[in-house]
Write a structure and sequence with these properties.
alpha+beta; five-stranded antiparallel beta sheet; 2 helices; 5 strands
Length: about 90
């Protein structure tokens, strides 16, 4: 389950929440429109947080961006760094 501090990271005005449950959060960046999925994979041994990405809401599938992310806070940092990169290329 996501902790209280982790949930507060998702409620950042930087994002709109697409879906949120105990182990998965789908977010959309308000800056780029890119969609992200942060998954607390309890089935993996050892447990890990995985980060997935797609460019458009209508894209059918996410692709794996990072297999092992240290924390939800780190996943949010990676998303924002990716957005800065994408925006600098426009």
């Amino acid at each position: 389950m996501f902790t209280g501090p982790e949930l507060s990271l998702f409620h950042d005005p930087y994002f709109s929440i697409i879906r949120l449950n105990d182990e998965l959060c789908q977010l959309r960046s308000r800056n780029t429109g890119h969609c992200w999925m942060i998954w607390k994979n309890y089935n993996a041994d050892p447990f890990r947080i995985e980060l997935y990405h797609k460019h458009h809401l209508q894209d059918k599938y996410y692709h794996q961006q990072r297999r092992q992310v240290c924390s939800v806070r780190n996943a949010i940092r990676i998303i924002k760094e990716h957005d800065r990169y994408v925006l600098s290329c426009r």
